[in-house]
Amino acid sequence: MNIQSECIMIKIFGSRGEISNVDIFLKKISDFSKKNNVTIQSFNADLIFGKNHLLSSIEHAKRAFENKTNTCNTLEMEILLYASGKRQLKHAIPKMGIKKGNVKAVFVMLNNNKIDRNLIKNLLEKIEFERDDKVIQGDINNLKKFGIKDSEIETVSKDRYSDLILEKVAMVDIIK
């Protein structure tokens, strides 16, 4: 999914792979990000409910920086904070962050230039992951893992499940 928003190109994509050391994995992403002048944030795909979940998190994070109400020092971490529906990184990282093992991951990549397939391919090769955009599609299990209760799920029709996540993302702004 490519989105041009205020001269910022956004690409959201899913993947699968094995992580034996989270710190080394994150260092590879950080090095790639710096080398290619691109902002990258990774997420545990089990807690993502569709692309709108992340697009909303990106918009809230960008607005927080524009309004100087950001909690985090980097856009990547502010996006993670909003995506998690939490107000503090000490809660957001364990909830949404990448973990060791055989994982499904979702990435957000942003920059002021075109993000082409080669850039994504090169990142995935560097971290030894395979692209799988199916991991972005949320279902009722994603909602439950995110912390949404059955009683909340029952209040909306299936086609409105994403609203439950978007409400949690927006609540971070209200509580700040």
Tag the structure with descriptive keywords.
176 residues; single chain; disordered N terminus; alpha+beta; PF0523-like; five-stranded antiparallel sheet
Verbal overview:
A hairpin with a 2-residue loop joins strand 1 and strand 2 (8-19). With 176 residues, this protein is α+β, with helices and mostly antiparallel strands. It has a single domain, classed as PF0523-like (2-Layer Sandwich), CATH 3.30.2380.10. The longest helix has 16 residues, at 51-66. It has helices at 22-36, 51-66, 75-84, 89-96, 117-127, 140-146, 150-153, 161-175, and strands at 2-5, 8-19, 39-44, 101-111, 129-131.
The CATH architecture comes to 2-Layer Sandwich
Structural class: alpha+beta
Order of helices and strands: EEHEHHHEHEHHH
CATH domain fold name: PF0523-like
Instruction: Estimate what percentage of residues fall within beta strands.
Output: 15-25%
Biggest sheet details: 5 strands, antiparallel
Report the span from N to C terminus: 30 Å
The level-1 CATH class:
Alpha Beta
User: Could you state the CATH homologous superfamily?
Assistant: CGI121/TPRKB
Cα gyration radius (Å): 15 Å
